[in-house]
Amino acid sequence: MAEYRLDDLARISGVSPRNIRAYRERGLLDPPRRQGRTAYYDDYHLSQLNTITQLLRKGYTSAHIAEFFERMREGHDLAAILGIQQAILGRQAPEASAEPRAAVLKVDVDSDEVRRLVSYGLAEVVDDTVTLTDPAMAEIVVRSTDHLRDVRMILRVFESAAGSVDELAAMLVAALEEAVAARYGPGYVPKDGETDEVARLVRDYRDLGVAVVTHQLAKSMRGHMASGRLRDLDSV
What we know:
By secondary structure, this protein is mainly alpha-helical.
């Protein structure tokens, strides 16, 4: 099996050394073999990087990808993992015949904002080019005339909501676990042929959670806009 140093792996995979280090630190990439102070990567790491890149482009977060690899390391069935993961993460839009245009950010690649985006898994840096990994965010930012303003908005919302969203997600997952245990028994693991039924239950809980949060957020925003300086723009 071929082995690569960091710069060689970056050149072959198209992933910058900075992102490779970030993936390794977040547990997405397996540790390299070390000889003295030199790290050596192999074809398995190259395959991991290709998978990470594809999943990020489809809208998966770095946390979900890390969990995916961890499940595989633990020997879980790949088909079951993919079935449940798809239910949890939502249905992806059909891929167009051509690769969608990436939202290349017109910002300083060495800025603190970019560093934070990459650390949160919201962007990646390749060849000194910064692109967002989330298609919905990318679609909005790419039509903006001030990318730095939008980036700061993304970071402000992400950092402000991270704790609350995590608590909501934990509550939703706990409710889902209770529903699964009530229906199938505690400690249940889907068997062959049962993945679709469990995935449907997961999908319903996920969609309900997103619908409730979206409804409440929109309602609260309308209230704040109506009572503040933006009240005249409430109908926009």
